[in-house]
Write a structure and sequence with these properties.
By secondary structure, the chain is α/β, with parallel strands linked by helices. The protein is built from 22 helices and 30 strands. The radius of gyration is 31 Å and the shape is flat.
Length: 689
Amino acid sequence: MSKNTLENLFAPKSIAIIGASNKKGKIGTVLVNNVTKLGYKGEVYFVNPSYKLLKLKRCYSDLNNIDRHIDVALVAVPAKFVLDVIVASCDKVKNFVVISAGFSETDAEGMKREKDLAQLAKDHNLNILGPNCLGFIAPKLKLNASFAGGMPKAGNIAFVSQSGALAVALMDRAAQEHIGFSQIVSVGNKMQLDESELLEYLAKDKETKVIGMYLEGIKNGQKFIETAKKVSKIKPIVILKAGKTEKAQKAISSHTGALAGSDDIIDVAFEKAGVIRANDLEEFFDLLTLISFVDAPKNEKVAVLTNAGGAGVLTTDAFKGKDIVLADFSSKTKDEMKSVLPQEASVENPVDLLGDAGEDRYQSILDILNKQKVGVIIPVLTPQQQTPVEKIAEAIIKNRKHSQSAMITVFIGGGRIKKSVDDLKKNYIPNFSNPDGAISALNKYYKWSLFKKTKEIICKENINVSRKKQVEEIIAMAKKENRSALFFSEAFEVMKKYAINPVSYVEILPGSEISPIMQYPVVIKVDSDKVLHKSDKQALILNIKDPSALEAAAKKLRANFPTERLVVQPMHDKQVEVILGIKQDSIFGPVIVYGLGGIYTEVFKMVNFLIPPMTAQSIKEQILKSKISFLFSGARGQQAYDIEEFASIINGLMDFAVENKNISEFDINPLFIYNDGREALAVDIKIIL
């Protein structure tokens, strides 16, 4: 896709409105009024065969009657006519915004209509925003090419929304909060222009400092991660992702499938891509305002000053578990503060200025803090009886102009602080109504700044063609026999190819004798695609100590499962049981699941997720941040487990996942790991086709 055409779409010098109207209640009427009455300076053409004149301006019966090229056409005609309109117009214009509804969001007919429209776009190299979208707004151009009312303030936030109604609500609030937009884009059904295409465009838009997105779904997961990772190195992306819970879950055969919720995987994908995730609408707005107004903290140190001890304690609590920290002040700095504060004041961090603090105390401490190497200064205020709120706000505004640190405020209250908060925002100082919101948003912004500085290591899927073919042949044989899972013997061979060490075994076919077993105790289990949870089905007998006990156990299992294979394995002692698995995610493809294993896996859910491909170093870093990191750090005086070995196993599993994307579900549960030099062992392996 040519970037020039996207610039022509979102910063057009000429627009045609197909379906232009002057009838009340028509979208075509709203589009005409928005484009012509809010200050847009480009050429505007009306197209509708029902009119000769519209708004005292010529109205064309057909776009082809216009004797010049058009940058973008807004299409607001009934869905059944959209395809014909674009077919007739695509030699004259290459960029379309399809406002019309009645496509894949409706029924089978609408889905076919959208499919045909997508093919048309591909055949004629068109850019099509929508269909079923609100349109877009470019405030700097005074262009409202949408059916939302008004003209937002021009600014540095680009907002991309899958919901037109939410875009309208955000614009309404933005007017009160003094924030402005570089672009507002409603994507509708995302038939062609999706979040990835728009991220690429907005990354190069000089007017955009931060990209905010409201998404209900992601079209192409791997493409999104790849694109967002590149863009996050240039500017922050803040996403509010809807759909945290699944209404229904299909019957799942592996532990892995039951453990990996779609929202958990979204978290991992966003972290991998450097995306800042907003947990709710309030935080989304807070993050956009913060990033719009101030630059990212230069370091993790934060200085807080307050006129209320309680507010100071709440602010201190908000730092728990965060990457940003309260700065330590030197004795010299504390002495300097003591010289300008009453004796009862505290010069620790947060600095307590006391309840009768006026603007002079705030000003004095801000002057001292400006000389410290802190990333952020946070003045906190509650409107007490003697508090000159407006004068304190003026002192903060004045101070911000020459401070090297980022400045945000936490003014807590209602009517008494309203005007001052308004003044702060007019001067690009974001205010938060509570300490938790302030510290959470600031921490996410700081973590993004660290991501931006990290050196990008290109990691591509590593396909071993020969190995892939060998595994495909094993799978093809199982499918030919109408099996839904591999036998243990087959899974054993597959895992060996990926440097994962399965436990040794002896196979017993139906009706055959048991081969001599050299070492006891052993385990005997049913090996069948019909019996995947062996403990639940009593298809597993442990701790068999001699040949006669093995004969008895085999007889019992054969009575209950007469047509199934059995497998005998050595009874290994266990130190720690780990689960490893693969979930086939509908958006991001294969996802690696790992964590504490055994029978309580689904109870405790001590699991983490990784999205391939990843470097060996990145895998190790994630393990050391995971819920089972304590195993590899020698917690409570224990010998640490071998992280190199565990990371190598996960790396092998990633190779297996990317080479065999047709696998339905997979898990190793348990994998025994040891900290005494013994090699990790894959005990039970499910490869479900």
